[in-house]
Specification:
Layout lengths: L1 H7 L2 H24 L6 E5 L2 E4 H19 L10 H25 L5 H9 L5 E2 L2 E2 L1 H11 L3 H23 L5 H11 L2 E9 L12 H10 L5 E2 L2 E10 H6 L5 H10 L5 E2 L2 E10 L6 H19 L4 H8 L11 E5 L6 H7 L11 E3 L2 E11 L2 E2 L2 H34 L5 H7 L4 E2 L3 E2 L10 H7 L2 H5 L15 E11 L2 E2 L2 H33 L5 H4 L4 E8 L7 H7 L11 E6 L5 E10 L13 H25 L2 E3 L10
Antiparallel strand pairs: 1-2, 1-21, 3-4, 5-18, 5-20, 6-17, 7-14, 7-15, 7-16, 8-13, 9-10, 9-12, 11-12, 19-20
Helix pairs in contact: 3-4, 4-7, 7-22, 9-19, 11-15
Protein name: Periplasmic chaperone PpiD
GO molecular function: isomerase activity
Membrane topology: Single-pass type II membrane protein
């Protein structure tokens, strides 16, 4: 058959075959090879195509940001993949619309502003300064080039400009300010009766069918958490320093080179007497202080006790009771003028009046303790720690680089790291996303342990530095993984029974509250009589910030204002399961203080921002309504779930 085709494929037949093959190849095949229009489009916005590749990158970026923000609380299962992709795509559509509007309005973001924004981003900093390595690493993790990141940031900042422009265009009217003040400072008279659920607990048996139904309806509540066991290695500068020995000669050499560090400064035992002066003292006040301090100095020279006079006349409350005693002071501890006077006096000497920013002082030097150099033996341990730490830090950076390289090049095992670097392979017990103890409670470690790269793909983690203030790094890998699983009914039966009894007690408490409420509304009983089975609380006249159960306060400020001499009542359940009947007895509006310059009130800025946000949302909705937007069906790959 093949030979027959070969024989016939000559002349005009062969040309027909070639033409038939060439036409589709020319129309579609070359584009596939060259990549022209070959990417799948997920949406088109006013002619601008958003590709699946761009969407994938933004979804991955969003996941990383969520993981960074939530730390150990991040749970991929909590973010439905399809819904996340839909939300990210809508955000990308809005960005395109905002860029279009911003460009038509002439809004621009300068290169200098972009640069400053990148340099000040905390995620790109180490020790408070921009770290290009951290910047490049984050871009690599997000699968972005510098140009892509800069353009994305430019779009975001341009959109922010539009938000600011719209928000700044709004301002509240005088009537709106008055209404806001009336409502925000409004007070309401509140009483409430609490029907405690615990009072309605019952030991009545619960049917197996009810237990089974509750178990099925609350299946998520009875799932054991996802857990992992980890292998990990730790590189810590403190551990490295412990293993470093410094020979005696090196320590003595360091002591000789830095001997000035170990000189104990001269210290002096000092008393003082202060006649205080205000900062802006006039000539008359200064003259009076000078006369008083001179008279006191003369009395001391005549033999009176410095301590007694300081206790009686000194304006320094901290030292007067101690006879002016300041204790031992070193150079640089006091005001410079005071300091100079102290260290120019001989032992037992009395100063002339000394003026500082506090007033006039008399100073007496009781004793002088000369400075001395600490001997080598006294500082040997300190020198050893410093030298060992310095060597350990140098070793840390070298080993850290090798650790990062080895764990990356051999992602399926930590054994090469242990063998080549001599680090200890540590193992954890089962830990969940809430973390374990010590290092295993650090958000960065937990985030890496439960990341797709480590948990799903089975790779070693990146080099993690949990605390940037400390030279310590860790690499983890998952040794064992236990999926979240449904706990058997038998193991949670008692828990369900307790929950059902609590649920019934709460329902009974609410039923009692509603019955009591009906009695008051129908006029069958007075408030105190109908609420006899409850705990009655009288909050009095309170504002919106009162310390009351949230549900009580929320309901009380939603009830309509009662008619004169009447009250408004309603029942509500509290967060703890108790039921309350709330009684609103009066409403007093807040004071209106708006004047002609109402725009300067704090409320004006808040209301302007709220109105601006509403206007911006309406503007964005209108822009989207007028735009030509085509959304393709979303695709969700298995590895994104």
């Amino acid at each position: 058959m093949l030979q027959s085709i070969r024989d016939r494929a000559q002349g005009w037949i062969a040309w027909v075959i070639v033409i038939l093959i060439s036409i589709p190849f020319a129309l579609w095949g070359i584009q596939s090879y060259l990549g022209i229009n070959g990417e799948t489009v997920t949406a088109t916005v006013n002619g601008v195509e958003l590709t699946e590749r761009d969407l994938d990158r933004r979804v991955q970026q969003t996941r990383m940001e969520l993981r960074e923000r939530l730390g150990a609380a991040y749970d991929p299962a909590a973010f439905d993949s399809a819904e996340l992709r839909r939300m990210v795509r809508e955000e990308m559509i809005r960005e395109v619309l905002l860029i279009d509007v911003s460009q038509r309005l002439g809004l621009r973001v300068s290169d200098q502003e972009l640069k400053l924004r990148i340099l000040s981003e905390p995620a790109f900093q180490r020790d408070g300064r921009f770290d290009n390595e951290a910047f490049q690493r984050l871009l690599q993790l997000q699968g972005m080039s510098e140009q892509q990141f800069v353009e994305q940031l430019r779009r975001q900042l341009t959109g922010t400009q539009l938000i600011r422009a719209v928000v700044a265009s709004e301002f509240p009217t005088r009537l709106e300010l008055e209404q806001f003040q009336r409502l925000s400072a409004q007070q309401r008279g509140i009483d409430y009766a609490r029907f405690v659920a615990a009072d309605y607990l019952s030991d009545e048996p619960i049917a197996d069918e009810t237990i089974e139904t509750y178990y099925q309806e609350h299946a998520e509540r009875f799932r054991s958490p996802e857990q992992v066991k980890l292998d990990y290695v730790v590189l810590d500068v403190a551990d490295l320093a412990k293993g470093i020995e410094i020979d005696e000669a090196a320590l003595r050499e360091a002591y000789a080179a830095e001997q000035g560090r170990f000189v104990m400064p001269e210290q002096r035992q000092v008393r003082h007497l202060l006649i205080a002066l205000p900062q802006q003292a006039d000539d008359e006040q200064v003259a009076a202080a000078e006369r008083e301090i001179a008279a006191l100095r003369a009395r001391i020279l005549e033999g009176e006790s410095f301590a007694d006079l300081a206790a009686e006349y000194s304006d320094d409350p901290g030292s007067a009771a101690e006879g002016g005693e300041l204790g031992l002071i070193e150079p640089g501890m006091m005001d410079p003028v005071f300091d100079e006077a102290v260290f120019s006096l001989p032992e037992g000497g009395l100063s002339e009046p000394v003026r500082t920013r506090f007033g006039y002082h008399l100073i007496e030097v009781e004793a002088v303790r000369p400075g001395e150099t600490q001997p080598f033996e006294a500082v040997r341990e300190q020198l050893h720690e410093e030298q060992a730490r310095a060597q350990a830090e140098s070793l840390y950076y070298d080993l850290g680089e090798r650790l990062a390289t080895l764990s990356y090049e051999r992602p399926d095992s930590l054994e090469p790291v242990v063998e080549e670097l001599g680090l200890e392979l540590r193992q954890s017990d089962w830990i969940g996303r809430e973390g374990g103890e010590g290092l295993l409670a650090e958000p960065g470690v937990l985030s890496a342990a439960f990341s797709d790269e480590v948990l799903v793909e089975g790779n070693n983690s990146e080099l993690i530095e949990p605390d940037h203030e400390r030279l310590s790094a860790v690499v983890v890998r998952v040794r064992d993984h236990r999926e979240s699983a449904q706990r058997p009914l038998e193991t949670v039966r008692e828990e369900i029974v307790a929950a059902l009894r609590e649920q019934r007690a709460q329902q009974a408490a609410m039923a009692a509250a509603e019955a009591a409420l009906a009695q008051v509304r129908d006029g069958e009983a007075e408030w105190s009589e109908a609420m006899a089975a409850a705990v009655i609380e009288s909050a009095g006249l309170v504002g919106r910030g009162a310390v009351l159960p949230e549900a009580v306060l929320d309901l009380a400020f939603k009830l309509p204002a009662p008619q004169s001499g009447e009250s408004e009542l309603e029942a509500v359940a509290l967060a703890d399961g108790d039921a309350v009947v709330v009684r609103l007895t009066q409403v007093e509006d807040g004071e209106v203080t708006v004047d002609r310059d109402g725009a300067t009130l704090p409320e004006a800025g808040l209301l302007a921002e709220l109105a601006g946000r509403d206007l911006y949302d309406a503007l964005l909705a209108d822009i989207e309504r007028r735009a030509e937007i085509t959304r393709e069906p979303l695709s969700v790959d298995d590895d994104q779930l």
